[in-house]
Structures are given as structure tokens and as C-alpha cells.
Recover the amino acids of this structure.
């Protein structure tokens, strides 16, 4: 049993105001993993007061960018040194397979390094001269107190993609962690504590939805950075709009994998293994709509079916497991309900189904499922399921593939597979998403990440992500 009985408030470990700890149950067998202190509005008030004091009067925003980079670099090294420990804890909490949590935790130092490079290259203050001889200074200054609200599916990635640029900008940060992954959030607080940030600069508060809404509504918070569902993002955006708070939102997706008629299906399925089924399918960037040319439709369905049947489902801590359980029983039931909906809508069930895998009935497991003969108007093609469920949709030609890919309320990610890279890039230019890959190319932490349409507002990673935490000031001289 792992126990954290205190919250991390402004650089100090403090008892929670509410004696109602969060109980963490294993998604694998529903046995206890541990319990963590739960934040309430009174704890939010304390964290905001310290963050406000630190921003308005403390040293952190007034350090040079280089001094802040040194502190963040120190944190990055300490965090990287505990990657294996953190990965194992996240697997125990949320059911992500160990191959995924280990690879993601290892990659996070690169995500932070990209922000450090962006901070070093940024012109924090620059002189601009007008044609008439006028002179102005353009300054980049921190936005203020930041509330970072993150989900459970990739908790440290979601936290650090917000906290690191906010800190480099000179902001103070309150992390509101998901109750499903409260233990690793407080472990993250241990790393921040060891790195030695000034008082008030960092707080970590695991809490539920009501406390989260209290935080984002708090008059002492200047900026909200959120990753989560589109429904929750709409609520946060409305709160931010009423109060004119700065806001950035990384939301849901229903992204398309376009298989062109010249694609190598072995390369396609190897790419979809990770792009569609990675992290148990509980990922906003998953490619869950496979678009296949009619001339090769059954060939594509058979190839993706073979991939789906090959995936090992089981204990997420086991080294040979590819897909673990859903994070909680309610999510398991939600995904299974969508599978039943797909059958009712008339889609052809090729692999999987709504029943729990044999021998795994004691956990939150879902059978990896593939549907064919899917129309893009079906619910299973339009709504984010957040589980290991794929659909294969036929198309007539390249224009039709682009049309179907764009026929979605979302616009977060996407991919194309083709023997002709130039053709793939032309397809990518036409699809209305914030990120896109050609033949499974890996994303780059130095380039912007985020969504069009209902997939969000703003960008993360690198210079674009750092800019979300800065205000621009012009001083005419």
C-alpha cells in the first residue's frame, strides 16, 4: 500500500482540510493500490494565496530566464532518474501497459528539453524600430498564476507539458491532478520539492470535479491549462470567458488513419499497433477511424483484424502485455456499451465484442474490437470511445478520403500511409487537424501540438507551448 496523507501546497507538505482520502484500486484486479490526500476548496484557497504572493512579490518571476532554466533543468534530471519508479506506479494506478508507461516516461526529458531550447532562443525583450524612426521595446512577461488541470491517461506528460513552460515563463503553478492517478501526482510533488523551487511556486492537489471547478473559477487564477474531454473543456472555456481568464485546452479526438491504394499493409498495421491501440486506446490522439480504398477494402480489414487478434491483453505490469485494463469499471462499461451500439447500428463485428476477456473478469478489461462496413455517420465513427475499438470505413478516391477524414467534430490528429511521400504530404495539407503523420513518422517536441475544431484551443510543445504562458507588452520610447 502506498500512502500519501499530505498535500503539496506552495512548496510545503500540509495536511488536507478534508479527511476523505482518495482510495486507488488496481484496474487489473480491483485490489487496493494505496490512498492519497484529497484537496478541497480550502486547500485551493491556500495554494492560490501562496501562488499569488509568490507571483506578485516573490523572486521567481523576477529571476532571469537563464536562472529559471537552471532550476527546470535540475528538476528534469531528478525526474528522469525516477522514470522507472514513476512508470510502475502509473501502470498500477491507471492500467496502462508497462511498455507504454516506461517509453513515455523516458521520452518526457526530451519534451522538457524542447521547452528549455525554446526558452533559450526566445527574445524575451527586443527592440523594434518603425520606418519613421520610432523605437519600441517588446517584452514577453509571465501571464501569472496558472491552474494546470490534467487527466489520468498520461498523467506526468499532461502535467509537465503545462507546468514546465509555465515555470520557464515565470508563472506560479497549481497542478490539479486526477483522483485516479493521485499517487503519482504526489510523487511528482516530491521531485519538485527536491528540485527546490521557491515558496509558493508549485502546488500539487489531487481532487475531483467540484474542487477542480472551484480552482478554475478562483479569482486569484490568471490562466487555465486543461487536458481532458471536450465536454469538460467547454465548461472550462465558459468559466474562463466569463472571467476573461487566459485559457488553453487540449481536448478529444476521433482521428483518421488514411490507407492509400499504394500503401504497404505491413507498415500500416505496425503503425496502427501504436497509433491506434497504444495506451489501451485511452488516448486523445489515437487513430480510431481507418479509411480504406474500396479496391483494397477487404484486404485492409483482414490485415487490421490480424493485428487486433495478435494483441496480448492482460496484467499491465507483465512485460508481454500490450493492452491492459481500462482505468476504472465505469470506463470499461462505457467502452463495452459502445461496442454493443456498433452492433446495433449494423456494423460488422470482425474481432472482439462486448464481453470481458475470459480469465480477466476480476478487472476492468475490454476485448480489442474491430468493426467493418462502418458508415461515418454511425456513433462509433463520430464519438470518442476512449478504448481499444477501431472502425474501418471505405472511400472512393483521395478526395473522398479527405472528405471523410474532415467530416468530424474533432481535429486533433491523423495519419496517412502511402508509397509516395509527396502524395501523403498533400493529403496531410488538406486534413483539418492540428497534427498529422505520414507513414507513422514520430512527432517532434519542438513543433506545435494541439487541435482544430472541438479538439481544443491553443498549442503545446516547444516555442508555441511556451508562448501560451506569456503576455506581450509594447513600450514606446
Amino acid at each position: 500500500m502506498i500512502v500519501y496523507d499530505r498535500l503539496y501546497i506552495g512548496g510545503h507538505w500540509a495536511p488536507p482540510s478534508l479527511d476523505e482520502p482518495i482510495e486507488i484500486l488496481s484496474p487489473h484486479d480491483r485490489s487496493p493500490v494505496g490512498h492519497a490526500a484529497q484537496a478541497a476548496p480550502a486547500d485551493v484557497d491556500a495554494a492560490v494565496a501562496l501562488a499569488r504572493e509568490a507571483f506578485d512579490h516573490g523572486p521567481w518571476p523576477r529571476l532571469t530566464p537563464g536562472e529559471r532554466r537552471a532550476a527546470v533543468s535540475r528538476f528534469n534530471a531528478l525526474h528522469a532518474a525516477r522514470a522507472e519508479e514513476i512508470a510502475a506506479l502509473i501502470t498500477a494506478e491507471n492500467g496502462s501497459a508497462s511498455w507504454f508507461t516506461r517509453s513515455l516516461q523516458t521520452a518526457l526529458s526530451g519534451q522538457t528539453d524542447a521547452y528549455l531550447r525554446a526558452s533559450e532562443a526566445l527574445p524575451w525583450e527586443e527592440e523594434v524600430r518603425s520606418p519613421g524612426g520610432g523605437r519600441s521595446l517588446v517584452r514577453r512577461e509571465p501571464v501569472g498564476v496558472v491552474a494546470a488541470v490534467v487527466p489520468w491517461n498520461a498523467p506526468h506528460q499532461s502535467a509537465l507539458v503545462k507546468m514546465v513552460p509555465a515555470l520557464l515563463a515565470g508563472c506560479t503553478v497549481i497542478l490539479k491532478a486526477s483522483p485516479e492517478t493521485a499517487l503519482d501526482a504526489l510523487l511528482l510533488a516530491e521531485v519538485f520539492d527536491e528540485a527546490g523551487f521557491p515558496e509558493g511556486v508549485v502546488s500539487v492537489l489531487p481532487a475531483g470535479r467540484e474542487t477542480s471547478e472551484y480552482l478554475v473559477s478562483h479569482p486569484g487564477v490568471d490562466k487555465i491549462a486543461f487536458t481532458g474531454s471536450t465536454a469538460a473543456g467547454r465548461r472550462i472555456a465558459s468559466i474562463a470567458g466569463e472571467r476573461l481568464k487566459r485559457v488553453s485546452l487540449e481536448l478529444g479526438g476521433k482521428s483518421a488513419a488514411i490507407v492509400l491504394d499504394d500503401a504497404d499493409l505491413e507498415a500500416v498495421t505496425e503503425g496502427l499497433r501504436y497509433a491506434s491501440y497504444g495506451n489501451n486506446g485511452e488516448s486523445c490522439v489515437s487513430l480510431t477511424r481507418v479509411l480504406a480504398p474500396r479496391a483494397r477494402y477487404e484486404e485492409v480489414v483482414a490485415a487490421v483484424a490480424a493485428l487486433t487478434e495478435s494483441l496480448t491483453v492482460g496484467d499491465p505490469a507483465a512485460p508481454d502485455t500490450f493492452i491492459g485494463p481500462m482505468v476504472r469499471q465505469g470506463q470499461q462499461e462505457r467502452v463495452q456499451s459502445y461496442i454493443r451500439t456498433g452492433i446495433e447500428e449494423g456494423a460488422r463485428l470482425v474481432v472482439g465484442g462486448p464481453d470481458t476477456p475470459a480469465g480477466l473478469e476480476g478487472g476492468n478489461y475490454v476485448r480489442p474490437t474491430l468493426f467493418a462496413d462502418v458508415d461515418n455517420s454511425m456513433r462509433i465513427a463520430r464519438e470518442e470511445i476512449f478504448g481499444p475499438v477501431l472502425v474501418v470505413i471505405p472511400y472512393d478516391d483521395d478526395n473522398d478520403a479527405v472528405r471523410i477524414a474532415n467530416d468530424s467534430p474533432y481535429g486533433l490528429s491523423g495519419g496517412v500511409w502511402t508509397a509516395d511521400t509527396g502524395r501523403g504530404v498533400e493529403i496531410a495539407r488538406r486534413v483539418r487537424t492540428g497534427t498529422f503523420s505520414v507513414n507513422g513518422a514520430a512527432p517532434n517536441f519542438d513543433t506545435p501540438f494541439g487541435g482544430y475544431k472541438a479538439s481544443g484551443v491553443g498549442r503545446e510543445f516547444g516555442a508555441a507551448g511556451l508562448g501560451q504562458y506569456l503576455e506581450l507588452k509594447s513600450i514606446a520610447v
Observations:
- Residues 2-251+455-476 form a domain with the Aldehyde Dehydrogenase; Chain A, domain 1 fold (CATH 3.40.605.10).
- The chain has a mean pLDDT of 98.
